[in-house]
Amino acid sequence: MHQPEIQPRKDKDAVRQNGPQMKKLIHLALPVRLIHMPNGERGALELACTYDIHPRGARLRSSHNLKVGDLVTVERGRMKSICQVVWAANPNSPLRGQFTVECVEGSRTPWEEELRQMEEQYLPLAPGWPYRKQPMNPFGRGEQNRRRRPRFQVNGDVNLAELGGRSRVEGGRLEEISEFGCLISSGNLLAPGTGLRLVLNTCDVSLALRGHVRYTARNRAMGVEFNEIRQGDRPLLDYVLKQLRKPRVEDFADLEVITEHLAAAAR
Q1: In which band, very low, low, confident or very high, does the pLDDT at 267 lie, cut at 50, 70 and 90?
Q2: Which of 214, 229, 239, 249 is least surrounded, with the fewest CB atoms within 10 Å of its CB?
């Protein structure tokens, strides 16, 4: 059987490095057929359903153990596309079994018409938004105690589009994130109060939110507070925060070095 001449992407950053990052994404369940293609050959057939769809692919769920770089054929009606897995959830996370594909062969995706007819939907991130008793003050002494959720240091990319289409910022760096906001470093800062659509690319997933700039710091960074999250992306945000909450291996390595140093000094 003919094997498609496709080079699987092995790098874990494939989602961030390929394609437009401000792409339209619709949270929609569509029944599809998956044909697994080990070694590029036709394999097992599986019935599946999309979680969300975008112009180049979709997020789905499978009972098979799929890895980044694997090939699958996605069929819906008479439409089919050969796709490559560009992200697979941690099997020990609540997203286990979920994976994202991008189409690598075929001029049309099986959900092209749905994408044309539908618009992205955003949901409030927290009940009662936007009413708050106190404004956020990133420089106050009590800021650490007033934060509603923990903040985590993180490495990632950010693309921003000002609501209304007047300005667009690409190449921003995601430095910190919490459930309700993030810190972004960029050479092009926007004024406090500016409404934004953000796409955050971190922990091998992409998620979109709407928010506004709360403050700028030292002409290099801006704090953004989230207002809404794209429908279907809330589990991805929870996934990112849970991944960041885990202790890093380097932390334990540093702890061992310090322990040995103190033990030697005590002799």
Answers
A1: low
A2: 249
